[in-house]
């Protein structure tokens, strides 16, 4: 009988930091829940860097004509306008990776990046659980159906605590692991 040697190679992992921007933390659309996760997110980013994980940040990105867009007509609060303080990733977080600007909730560019780089695992953290985290988790599942996708609940916040929980349950039903 042949004994199988353990596979000691590290899995190729991706940490996606979703929309941890000033406008979503304490700016135009900030919430107390978003403010509460900043320390957890910073610690998770540092841990990922120490463990050699690839880190990608997404940024919700709008232009000055935001009020005339479909989203702007449905959500009439201008936010994350390119070139403004609100658009920037919070300076309370270490910036240790690539930034992907996205004009909508989910990023096709992120999906392609994960697919092209053949990640075995992706973990999402950030804002908002019920909008952009959910959208990007589903896109990653679509682009990389064999990749384990996880969401770290204590590093995410939704628009409301109830919508955060609803989104976590929806993702769990779609085979996203909730940590």
Automatic annotation (TrEMBL):
**Keyword presence, Mitochondrion:** no
Q: Supply one GO molecular-function term.
A: hydrolase activity
**CDD domains per the record?**
cysteine_hydrolases
**What keywords appear on the UniProt entry?**
Hydrolase
| Matching InterPro entries | Isochorismatase-like_dom, Isochorismatase-like_hydrls, Isochorismatase-like_sf
Q: Name one Pfam family in it.
A: Isochorismatase
Residues annotated as domain Isochorismatase-like: 14-176
User: Transmembrane segments in this chain: where?
Assistant: none
Family of the protein in this entry: Belongs to the isochorismatase family.
The identity of this protein, by name, is Cysteine hydrolase
Q: Which organism is it from?
A: Candidatus Borkfalkia excrementavium
């Amino acid at each position: 009988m042949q004994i199988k040697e353990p596979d000691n190679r590290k899995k190729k992992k991706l940490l996606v930091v979703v929309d941890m921007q000033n406008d979503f933390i304490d700016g135009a659309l900030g919430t107390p829940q978003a403010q509460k996760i900043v320390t957890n997110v910073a610690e998770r980013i540092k841990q990922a860097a120490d463990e050699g994980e690839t880190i990608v940040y997404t940024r919700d990105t709008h232009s000055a004509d935001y009020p005339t867009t479909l989203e702007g007509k449905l959500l009439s609060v201008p936010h994350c306008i390119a070139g403004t303080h609100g658009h920037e990733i919070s300076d309370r977080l270490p910036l240790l990776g690539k930034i992907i600007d996205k004009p909508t909730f989910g990023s096709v560019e992120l999906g392609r990046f994960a697919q092209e780089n053949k990640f075995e695992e992706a973990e999402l953290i950030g804002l908002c659980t019920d909008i952009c985290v959910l959208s990007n988790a589903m896109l990653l599942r679509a682009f990389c159906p064999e990749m384990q996708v996880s969401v770290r609940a204590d590093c995410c916040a939704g628009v409301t605590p109830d919508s955060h929980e609803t989104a976590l349950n929806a993702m769990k039903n779609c085979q996203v692991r909730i940590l």
